[in-house]
């Protein structure tokens, strides 16, 4: 895929680097610092070989490795799992010079980051994302967290990693649906900040739609780098989401609600795909997207996402549950819902407290009786 291309390093402000390339996994030990004696490697059950490679690399540098296998996917992001990992760290005597390494998709990097943020009030974490979504989004930016029964990512901390290593070779084994889910967050970066991303996706789809949705997408490396650059720039300016960072949450108010209502049986990127179409429709109804250009931009959301095999519709008849979940969105202020919308391509804005009639009308435009993930 990207075999001979040298690694690219993208700095997140002056805090840490995201390294993207082929065979970059060996860099984990260098990011942990000279004092580290113990490392907890948090990993899913699906990646035994990759985990063993990371562990062997650390052991070769004299580090004592403790492996923590956690449940796959969203089941990892629970208080129960966090408490188990705290127990493991305590029994092994982890001190402030020791560290956590997250090897896995976004669920693992969110969990590992939160465990590192909370242990002894903060130890070093190095993130080794193994999904496209983890590389372009979850592992970058220091947002860590877990879910509670009441909603998505309701408990967490801002805890930037010491570094992020994105080894693009590992994407070869990623299931196609997970690759496409990662592309949803890449496309998000295209709509909020970097339209070249959309052009690259559209040209790959025009050449071969099946290839465009796979790790063989000829633009994949550039897409990863562009999405990471968008995120790095935003996060460097506003780590704690006082304002600008909210744009990375485009499509997430409705998307997170779908995830919760569906009890996390939808992939995050799939839910965010529908969420982006929802908020594009809402922006049009609320007068943020107007005229033929506005119509075309809403249509482009559907065409790009559907061309990648991503869902753009959600079942009808779930409005009350969705609204309850949306009210717990972190962008809400009191009982006022706030959405990231577009005033145009790469022109993010905020929609504050839209009328319930508009909210529900936008739902009508993305829902169809009896349809779940179908387009
Ligand atoms: N912190 C943030 O800023 C941020 C940003 C975006 C998303 N997220 C979170 O990320 C999570 C979604 O992450 P995800 O899409 O990576 O899902 P995931 O972590 O569930 O991984 C998807 C699936 O791929 C498998 N997998 C991982 N790497 C693989 C590989 N190389 N080969 C084969 N299989 C592999 C996993 O075992 C899992 O079954 C959500 O919880 C979301 O909330 C966080
Ligand atoms: O980094 C951010 O900020 C984001 O919002 C990126 C999102 O893609 C990501 O899903 C994030 O975890 C959502 O955060 P939340 O604050 O809405 O839980
Ligand atoms: Zn997301």
From TrEMBL:
Binds 1 divalent metal cation per subunit. Can use either Co(2+) or Zn(2+). Keywords: Amino-acid biosynthesis, Aromatic amino acid biosynthesis, Cobalt, Cytoplasm, Lyase, Metal-binding, NAD, Nucleotide-binding, Zinc. Its main location: cytoplasm. It holds the Pfam family DHQ_synthase. Coiled coil: none annotated. It catalyses: 7-phospho-2-dehydro-3-deoxy-D-arabino-heptonate = 3-dehydroquinate + phosphate. InterPro entries: Dehydroquinate_synthase, DHQ_synth_AroB, DHQ_synth_fam, DHQS/DOIS_N, DHQS_C. It comes from Terrabacter terrigena. Its EC number is 4.2.3.4. Catalyzes the conversion of 3-deoxy-D-arabino-heptulosonate 7-phosphate (DAHP) to dehydroquinate (DHQ). Residues 182-332 form the 3-dehydroquinate synthase C-terminal domain. It is found in: Cytoplasm. This is 3-dehydroquinate synthase. The lineage of its organism: Bacteria, Bacillati, Actinomycetota, Actinomycetes, Micrococcales. Belongs to the sugar phosphate cyclases superfamily. Dehydroquinate synthase family. Its cofactor is NAD(+); Co(2+); Zn(2+). HAMAP family: DHQ_synthase.
């Amino acid at each position: 895929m990207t075999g001979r291309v040298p690694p690219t390093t993208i700095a997140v402000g002056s805090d840490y680097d995201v390294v993207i390339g082929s065979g970059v996994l060996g860099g984990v030990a260098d990011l942990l610092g000279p004092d580290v004696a113990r490392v907890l490697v948090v990993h899913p059950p699906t990646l035994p070989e990759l985990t063993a490679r990371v562990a062997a690399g650390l052991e070769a540098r004299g580090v004592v490795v403790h492996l923590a296998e956690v449940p796959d996917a969203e089941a990892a992001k629970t208080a129960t799992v966090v408490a188990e990992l705290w127990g493991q760290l305590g029994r092994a005597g982890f001190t402030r010079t020791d560290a956590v390494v997250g090897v896995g998709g976004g669920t693992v990097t969110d969990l590992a980051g939160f465990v590192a943020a909370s242990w002894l009030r903060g130890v070093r974490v190095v993130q080794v994302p193994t999904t496209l979504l983890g590389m372009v989004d979850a592992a970058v930016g220091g947002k860590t967290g877990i879910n509670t029964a009441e909603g998505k990512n309701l408990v967490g901390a801002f805890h930037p990693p010491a570094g992020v290593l994105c080894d693009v070779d590992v994407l070869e084994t990623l299931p196609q649906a997970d690759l496409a889910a990662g592309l949803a967050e890449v496309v998000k970066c295209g709509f909020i900040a970097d339209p070249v991303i959309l052009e690259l996706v559209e040209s790959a789809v025009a050449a071969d739609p099946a290839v465009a949705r796979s790790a063989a997408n000829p633009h994949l490396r550039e897409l990863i780098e562009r999405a990471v650059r968008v995120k790095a720039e935003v996060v460097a300016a506003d780590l704690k989401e006082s304002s600008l960072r909210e744009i990375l949450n485009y499509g997430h108010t409705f998307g997170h609600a779908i995830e919760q209502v569906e009890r996390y049986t939808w992939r995050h990127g799939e839910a965010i795909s529908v969420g982006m179409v929802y908020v594009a429709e809402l922006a049009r109804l609320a007068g943020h997207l107007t005229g033929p250009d506005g119509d075309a931009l809403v249509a482009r959301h559907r065409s790009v996402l559907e061309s990648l095999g991503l869902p753009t519709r959600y079942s009808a008849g779930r409005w009350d549950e969705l609204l309850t979940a949306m009210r717990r969105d972190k962008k809400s202020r009191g009982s006022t819902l706030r959405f990231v919308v577009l005033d145009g391509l790469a022109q993010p804005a905020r929609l504050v407290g839209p009328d319930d009639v508009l909210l529900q009308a936008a739902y009508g435009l993305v829902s169809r009786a009896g349809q779940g993930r179908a387009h």
